[in-house]
Amino acid sequence: MKMSTVKTENAVAEAVAAAQGPLVVRAGGTRAVGRPVAGETLDVSGLSGVTLYEPGALTIVAQAGTPLTEIEATLAAENQRLAFEPYDLTGLLGTTGATTIGGILATNASGPRRIQAGAARDFALGVRFVDGAGNIVKNGGRVMKNVTGYDLVKLMCGSWGTLGVLTEVSLKVLPSVEAVTTLVIPGRTPAQAVAAMSAALGSPYEVSGAAWIDGAVWLRLEGFARSVDYRATALQDLLRAHGEVTRDEQADWTRVRDAGPLHRSEAVWRVSVKPGDGPALIATLPEGCDTMMDWGGGLIWVGQSGGDAAATHGTVQGTVAAMGGHATLIKGPDTLRAAVPVFQPESPGVAALSTALRARFDPRGILNPGLMAA
User: Fold this and answer.
1) Which domain holds residue 117?
2) What tens digit of pLDDT does each residue of 107-137 get?
3) Contact between 232 and 181 (Cβ < 8 Å)
4) Which residue from 122, 132, 311, 350 lies 20 to 30 Å from 205 (Cα-Cα)?
């Protein structure tokens, strides 16, 4: 497969404008999700570096190929962080390379803190990108504001590189916290876990993570040390009816964020439903599937090894459709990803809108074509 490596925004625009066929947009190469795409690889990892950082304004601007580790190190030096806690798929997918800030926004990668702080798209202030005709487009800015017409910042988040090639992003950041603790309730069924997590999230104690992992409920509290201690004690008392509640100061939330228990699974789905529907969905899965929940039960990770993954895929997406949610095949062999709709099929109205948007931003249909096809 031919590869073009670019290091400037103008070079991206020239490469896209000159393309004679499909382009596979790539930066860190860590997110091999979606239907396999054949074409010339456009490597934008050379667009790297923080171009502006204003700690007092809680704003950072970086080129899209900047590694997440560089962003995090820059922020940590000023005791700040990315509040949306982007997940890392390298362990799950067995990929190598560096997760980039452009890839994070293109996939709207958001971790456990989403239930409290919001998703990646909620922290995106502005973007620069190259559309499918080779035009350089800028939208948004360096401060949060309301917009009319196309909100291209939000539109690019979760588009998986099918509407444009991100070249620069502007993000809102938040201060880091002084203390973190996790309350653990072991031995809970999915229904019991959702009940406990709902009680915690409905309390005034500012839970920043609510997950069910390895059969146990995890509830995270963050903030100033005295506040965390007070809230943890109060929440323990509130939750005693849901089982034995203990504190764990060392709980590894990257296992929740990155679906750690499912790394050995041959096929993995990421499912979003109403929290109350999670246990019913889990009950429909074939025997042998492994599951965990995040976002208070609103996000379910499903893993399967052996068995008929295509049949499981149909069951998951069919059940989720009836619940008004969506399911994405995150991991699976190329043969499976080529044979099934990796992303949840859209309703006719939404599908028509998506087609119109792609025709507007990528009239030649050359940017990751077919990656999100039903």
Assistant:
1) 3-175
2) 999 999 999 999 999 999 999 999 999 999 9
3) yes
4) 122
